[in-house]
Amino acid sequence: MQSNQMQPLSGKELAYISDSISNEEMLIKQYAATAGVTQNQTVRQLCQQQVQTHTHHMGMLIQLLQQHQEYAPTQPQ
């Protein structure tokens, strides 16, 4: 088997990715809320940058899941 072929993700890997997506969502919400209430322009800009960064991270995680979807087993293991 070639090393560049995708393999199905294990349950542990799926749980880790799911937790990571949840964490990214939480960070996005927290930074967005802080950006919305702060009076400090520098803090607001930093929070908005962090929202973009964590949105990108979440998108990468979701894309990873989508790439592996066709390799997922169709029956529970």
Automatic annotation (TrEMBL):
Gene3D superfamilies: 1.20.1260.10. This is Spore coat protein. It comes from Paenibacillus stellifer.
